[in-house]
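User: I want to check something. If I give you two sequences, will you return the structure for each one separately, not as a complex?

Assistant: Yes, each is folded on its own. Here is the first sequence with its structure:
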Amino acid sequence: MTASDWFLWLGIISLVTTTCALVRIKHLWWFMPLYFFVAWLTGELAVFHIAWQAVASILLIYGGALDSANGVAGLVLCLLSWAGLYYFHRQGVASAQPLEDALLPVLGPDYRARVAAAGRPPLPETASAADWRRPFAMSRPGVERVRDLAYGDAGVRNHLDIYHPHNHGGNCPVLLQIHGGGWTIGSKDQQALPLMNHLASRGWICVSVNYQLSPGVKLPQHLIDIKRALAWVRENIEKYGGNPDFIVTTGGSAGGHLCSLLALTANQPRWQAGFEQADTSVAGCVPFYGVYDLLDRHGLRGISSMTGFLEGNIMPTSPNTDPEIWDALSPIVQVHPDAPPFFVIAGTHDSLVFAEEARHFAEALRKASRQPVVYAELPLAQHAFDVFHSPRSDNTVFAVTRYVETLYADYLGRTGAG
């Protein structure tokens, strides 16, 4: 092929991938995983795609790509693609505003003053290029990691890691992170690394846990493992500088489902066989793009229903045989007045777990819970948008930091701890 032909193909591929990032598609059957990966990686790495495509374009033009109509068409398509990518990038940069708009009415206009009065480090505001220009650089100065501590007897699937600041005075707030992966894959060292490293650099103790996976085990075993991990953390975290009386939980996708269930089923003996007396309550919950309704009772998924996958791989029975267990393991059914504070986060363009499900869950929480509920829906955000650094990811990390720091400041104000 000539340089003009290569330029045309570059333009076509560029525009197709950019379109995937900008256009929300909900139903693609077996093509959905491919669409998701293209949309996710193109959007969250938009400026890097512009950069490599620009370099490729310059080389092709230098090689004579504009000597024919194909090359000119390729240039036009690339320019359109770059315009779309730049728009996506600017939306990521601007995501700080909808996050703050969600936080402010719930936390109150004085929340920053409350955090400062509690002696906490200054709150982060808006992500800058220094935050996201190295998307896969996760470590932070002064943060150390203790690996593979056993909290149960299921081998590596019952291990956890602890991220902590090198120098701390003890009694630090604690974050419990639960990974996603459709209940079938995933590991404690793959997700929420930007959030955990950032919080640890501010004096938090962050714990990331493994749990047993399907189809080897079925729900509720995943939840039982997470509760056992929380019980271990509450009993042992003081040795690593953590405050066992202040633990918040977070997780994405299946982890969003599990952390929400954990928060909503505190101290229920049904899910704590053998450690019924352990305190499995949490001080707050921050689920990202979680699955909140296993039965899709609002009819949101349509032809993209998860019922067959769940029945065949994750759940112990069919919904017709035992609908009660499906309800018991659906966070939207388990909301109640004594639920802890929640910060529910979703993306408008999530192709795997639709934002509408998060909206229904947040509304159910607001109707039932006595505690504040924050809901933020980020424009153009795809599933897993927070896995690595990007403008949107880092703005969300900073917003979650402001949220959990406010919860902790209010806890210190109530208890005088610290």
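And separately, the second sequence with its own structure:
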Amino acid sequence: MYHRHSQRQVHTPAQGYNQGYGGYASPPPPVQGGGGYPGYAPPPMQQQRPPPPAGADPELWHWFSAVDTDRSGSITVTELQSALVNGNFTKFDLDTVKMLMNIFDTDRSGTIGFNEFQGLWRYIKDWQDVFKHFDRDHSGSIDGHELAAALSSFGYKFSPAILSLIEQKYASGPTAMGYGPSPGITFDRFVRACVVVKTLTESFQAVDTDRDGWIQINYEQFLKIVLTAP
């Protein structure tokens, strides 16, 4: 049997953080103060775009139409990745894009339609505010101390060893020149780290029915928890 220990200080995040988006996590409550960090790459010039649906936000429809490069009426993983950039102008990594697709592809079509895209847009905008709030040095990335502050504010009290593992796992790769300070955790990886921590914590808590910080599971149950994480 497999035993795993969890700190008793770990709690469900504050109300508003665990409202469902397609069965996964939504962002923490937005922090006041505008975005301006990562977001969508500038849309290419596009002629003869179809008019927005009745009641749709024209600006949001413009973005959707720009991302939908093959004009299929829906967005693929490849199209979405090409449209999302971090504050350092790097594209979102593919695993994060797949996670976002899985969250917002509510009809499980493998693509995102306009209605689903609206939810994804709001989700990213909320995370932008959160990211900016915790990027205290305005570096465009999250370092270890900023990560600890963010997770603590969400209700997660991890040991330094666990925080270090999270930081190492989700930190961006080395700079192109191979030297200089660590780039830290970019926006896309920060979102994924928070969602993974929340999902794994909830999976553990679902099995820890007596809330003693210990669970007893077999090998297949363990693999299921790990492999179904975002």
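Because they were folded independently, the notes below concern the second chain alone. The chain has one domain: 2-227. The chain has eight helices and four strands.
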